[in-house]
Amino acid sequence: MPEQTESAPLLELSKCEQIFRTKRGDVRAVAGVDLEVRPGKVLCLVGESGCGKTTTARAAAGLTRPTAGWVRYKGEDVNTMDSASRQAFREAVQYIHQDPYASLNPVRTVYSTVTAGLRRHKLVKTRTEARAKAAELLELVDLTPAESYLDKYPHQLSGGQRQRVAIARALAMGPQVLIADESTSMLDVSIRVSLLNTLGRLRDDLDVGFLFITHDLAVAKYFAWDGEIAVMYLGEIVEQGPTPQIINDPQHPYTKALISAVCEPDPRLAREKKTVRLRSSEIPSLTALPSGCTFHPRCPLFEPGLCDASAPPLSLINGDARRLACHVVARDHGPARAGAN
Amino acid sequence: MREPILSVRDLSIVYRTGRRTSVTAAQDVSFDLYPGQSMALVGESGCGKTTLGLGLLRLLPRLGQVSKGEIVYRLKDGMSVDITGLAKEELRRFRWHEAAMVFQGAMNSFNPVLRIGEHFTDTLRSHEGEKRRTRAEITARATELLSMVRLEPERVLKSFPHELSGGMKQRILIALALALEPQVLVLDEPTTALDILTQRSIVEQLHELRERLGFAMIFITHDLGLAAELADRVATMYAGRIIEKGSAEDVFYEPRHPYTVGLIKAVPPVIGDLPELSSIAGSPPSLADLPSGCSFHPRCEWAVDACRETVPSLTVLTPRGEDGGHAAACLRAGDIEYTRKVVARA
Amino acid sequence: MSTKTKKGTGGTLSVLWQGITRSPSGFTGMCIVVAILAFVFLGRFLVDHDNPTDPDALWLPMSGEHWLGTNFEGKDTFTKLVLGGAEPIWVGALAAAITVVVAVILGALAGYLRGRFDDIVLQATDITMTIPFITVLIIVASYFRNISPLMVALIIGLLTWPFLTRSIRAQVLTLKEREFIEAAKLQNLGTTRVVFVDILPNMAGYIFINFIIAVTNAIYAIVGLYLLGLLPSTAENWGLMIQQAWQNSAYLLPRALPFLLAPLAMIALFQVGLVLVTRSLEQALNPRLRER
């Protein structure tokens, strides 16, 4: 947004590429992705499963090392930084897993889970202090009364409560960026919203930046309204821009398909809505990517000779803050502006 | 007035949990389903919707049983039958022929060592009764069914389950369920765990099949969006009871039970303005330990003293439409207002 | 119904305790084990440790004075039975403890760290597994003649660790891919803490079961060595009793039979007790069996 002075990005991925070597050949899970996460802002990564969202997120969290490109934290490459900076990065960038049943150690109490990092790094001195700090963190994620949760084991908690504990654990490190990988998708509707509202408070009050991964455009719209959405397909970003633009006026045929696929909780709108029919509902294998634009075998705008010949660059579209990778739309909307990256 | 194809009256389902203990997973459920109609059973996990779905076909696990009420189907030959009284053999003939179920989790519904073709053979053979189909007839029928769900029959019939994607398996399950042309199809979370584009294609598929074959459908879901897309009628379940039912329009635009209101307010829309979303305070009660009176009262912002004592019955609010029109089980149904605050304009 | 089984089960300890007490066979097993332990470790305070040789009372039958009769030297068989249990049991437990400690440390670190350390550990297990430990024991025992029970425990412990090391390593390999371990790593908790505080407690039950199995194996080994007469015949020991009974042809003399059968029965009972306990523990810890 031009009226706001943009703060410097906390976490930056540039030309990030992740190739997995397997018996069946190389799998290009992420192919040259550029992303920026700023304080108090949400960058939402959406796409089907297998599109590289999680791989990108794991690289951003420093859990895997990209095969090419950089992940930078406050301008410094996280894979070559010295151990002190690496430690600072580790603490500042926290990752929240999808499945709250798998991400908590079944034999540890909530207190133990939440304060492990604090105790290890001597950020709390006594047990009383640790318990007080843990209670404070649980309150921050709306687990109240906090005291009653401290000595519980994960199996005594519901899915939503577990996910809150996982978030409290991440917050214990005083993170500046939270990477949330489908962290709300396994929860019931009502619990999901209350968790999203909790995360929204962390974003607005604590200025935490989010890399938020979801397959649900409606959730993306709600959580990232002031932020950006990046749509991924087969390891590449195909459209990226401010959330209201992407949701209300999608340009890439894949984004259009994703948005029209969401089941609208409104019977009349649902009935009137036109859905984008793809030419195929099956996602191609990453080991045998289609030529040119990888979306062409499914794309309703497919033009032979154009789309299957070369890969479209991700470039700015005329008079827009969004970037788009589509030959057909780019041609119909006029040439890309010079200087687009 | 046409006649319902399925009438459920005062149905209760009980699970034995110990030697002397049991929980009631579905209580006093009543509704009518008319030919060709599609009804959504919505609610959060643990509200008893899956139990009810299984109960409708008497597919309950060993420890569960219908303790009260009747489930009356009108059969293809015009006769009516209460399936709560059917013997095992009669039940077997009833299932698939008259009503069929698509279970949750398409991944686990197949035997991994059998090809898809053999699954069709098994289903068609085991429910055939006296006349036994030849191999050619079975292949012809399977081919017809698979093309109906837009799959390539030659390839799919030869495949093993693990060679197919989740969406394909879900389509095959639907095709299998339709094999003997049932009049009622019960689907448990038909799109959960599928990718969003695959979900969409399953939804379209179900629309198309229903138009073409005219079966009635009950689907169980926690996704209100799916209910809005697919259902003519919606029934909301909470703690084992249906607490509101009505046409999709009535339930979505004029919800009259605070729980339904809460559910709707928790679902983000993708089209249009951005409304404020709110969650329902607290968490669902355990079926083994339900609150007194209206089981929703501890979480309800409208609750008054009477709610703690009286169990509200499903009361008709607007009698338009079939199956008693729009009804809600709330003492204060008349006072419930549904408004949504808009946070950002589109 | 998975939530129901999860409810009410606290830590590993209570799962183990319930596993033993809730299954009839496990409970029987525990009773046998406890009874024998009491017989051996409390009984020694009640019997006369001198138990003198008496040339006038060789091979006496069972009587009020000599409950199980006397042996070839006229010593009281019952007293020998009480005194002879301690050594096989504590040597077995010590050998098992050595096996388990070595296996847990090496296996867990190898599985978690991988790389060179893992390679070295795997090499070492391969080499050690090719050494037949009974043969080694026989050679060592016959070479040194005066080998102490402690040595026996050490040798057994140091030769049987590879099997457990491998299975612990395999378990750690899968556990460390679990998300909660990744979450611990993201908190920069350090290797020792992640391995010994986050991973290993999740295998506590498995390790405990393997400890008991190791005890049974070690007891067999010790008794076997005594039976072969390869260990010094100084201490009181069930294995030694069997060997002496054998050498003195107790099996030919009906009234001498208790001297042969009593230690045999004790060993068999103790092992059966341990096996019953491990069986029920395995069931308690295997979630798939638990759900039934």
Automatic annotation (TrEMBL), chain A:
Family in the record: Belongs to the ABC transporter superfamily.
Which key words tag this protein in UniProt?
ATP-binding, Nucleotide-binding, Transport
Q: Name one GO molecular function term.
A: ATP hydrolysis activity
* Name used for this protein in its record: Oligopeptide ABC transporter ATP-binding protein
Q: Which GO annotations describe the biological process of this protein?
A: peptide transport; transmembrane transport
Q: Report the domain of life of the source organism.
A: Bacteria
Query: To which species is this protein native?
Result: Actinorhabdospora filicis
Q: Which CDD domains match?
A: ABC_NikE_OppD_transporters
Q: Per the record's keyword annotation, is ATP-binding included, yes or no?
A: yes
InterPro entries registered for this protein in UniProt = AAA+_ATPase, ABC_transp_ATP-bind, ABC_transporter-like_ATP-bd, ABC_transporter-like_CS, Oligopep_ABC_C, P-loop_NTPase
TrEMBL record, chain B:
According to Swiss-Prot or TrEMBL, what is its membrane topology? Peripheral membrane protein
Q: Which GO terms describe its cellular component?
A: plasma membrane
The places in or outside the cell where this protein is found are:
Cell membrane
Q: Name one GO molecular function term.
A: ATP binding
Q: Per the UniProt entry, what is one GO biological process? A: peptide transport
What the entry lists under Gene3D superfamilies is as follows: P-loop containing nucleotide triphosphate hydrolases
Q: What is this protein called?
A: Dipeptide/oligopeptide/nickel ABC transporter ATP-binding protein
Name the UniProt key words of this record, in alphabetical order: ATP-binding, Cell inner membrane, Cell membrane, Membrane, Nucleotide-binding, Translocase, Transport
Q: Which superkingdom, per the lineage? A: Bacteria
- Give the family, as the similarity comment puts it: Belongs to the ABC transporter superfamily.
Ranges where the ABC transporter domain occurs: 8-264
Q: What is its main location?
A: membrane
TrEMBL record, chain C:
> Which keywords does this Swiss-Prot/TrEMBL entry list?
Cell membrane, Membrane, Transmembrane, Transmembrane helix, Transport
- Residue stretches spanning the membrane: 27-47, 89-113, 120-144, 150-168, 203-228, 256-278
Would I find Protease among this entry's keywords?
no
Superkingdom in the source lineage: Bacteria
Location(s), subcellular: Cell membrane
Q: What GO terms are given for molecular function?
A: dipeptide transmembrane transporter activity
Zinc-finger among keywords: no
The membrane-topology field of this record reads: Multi-pass membrane protein
Residue ranges of every copy of the ABC transmembrane type-1 domain listed in the record = 89-278
Question: Which residues does UniProt assign to the signal peptide?
Answer: none
- What PROSITE patterns does the record tag this protein with? ABC_TM1
Record family assignment: Belongs to the binding-protein-dependent transport system permease family.
* PANTHER family cross-referenced by the UniProt entry: D,D-DIPEPTIDE TRANSPORT SYSTEM PERMEASE PROTEIN DDPC-RELATED (PTHR43386:SF1), OLIGOPEPTIDE TRANSPORT SYSTEM PERMEASE PROTEIN APPC (PTHR43386)
What protein does this entry describe? Peptide ABC transporter permease
**Source organism of this protein record:** Actinorhabdospora filicis
